[in-house]
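Annotated sample (chain length 269).
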Amino acid sequence: MNASANTPMPKVAIHKFASCSGCQLAFVNMGTDLIELTKLVDIVHMAEFGHVAPEDEPVDVAFIEGSITTPHDVERLLKIRANSRYLLTMGACATSGGIQALRNNADTAEWMRSVYAKPEFIQSLSSSAAIANHVKVDFELWGCPVSVRQMLAAIRSLLFGVAPQISREKVCQECKRRGNNCILVTQGAPCMGPVTRTGCGALCPSFGAPCYTCYGPAENVNAQSFGMCLMGLGLSPEQVARKFASINNAAPVFSEATQLFSGSAWMEE
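Output written by the structure step:
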């Protein structure tokens, strides 16, 4: 997929599903980088820009923001996948189901009856699912919101016919490179850096705040051991479970940790 003066620019579409639109806004916030990007690709669909193309229009790269929560979402997604050469998910919602996936642990039908006067008119799936639960995903960009630097790197890699590469190392390693004092050690605060992948540049720890798992699970995570470490800091099993049940709560390793440390599940251990 190489762009040149003699061939049409590759077409890129950015589609939104159930989300806050923060990852689309990350595109908008690129500033001058976005202007340079438009010299390399033709962005044919992005609601935040006001560019809305049919979802069955063939594109070279489709970025997906948001999780799948309705039957209509599934229909749209299948159409997009069928007409995209590469499909990339961006952000926590698209890659793991997002904060809204917390509802997956509840009785959806009962919840809807408690909220809506006529729940029979609400068309909703019983879960908030990642894009990869429904279609093939060629590459995932984690984060809440996604990293502009990683988005640009992924697009440039695809333009040169190279598979994108994103590090899955831990936030702790980024902290070491930045010379940050370890929040977990020096403050005794429940920083999630040891189980979270980098990508944010260790933003929160650099300002003295603990990591919140925005970029999802890192490589080789021992969630049970780390949960025991957090309990050693004084957190209850339920509080540990809540640490994992956050932005990327439906990511398998975090979901398993949540179940392990929540209430009766922990007592059975």
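Annotation: The radius of gyration is 20 Å.
Annotation: Residues 171-268 form one domain.
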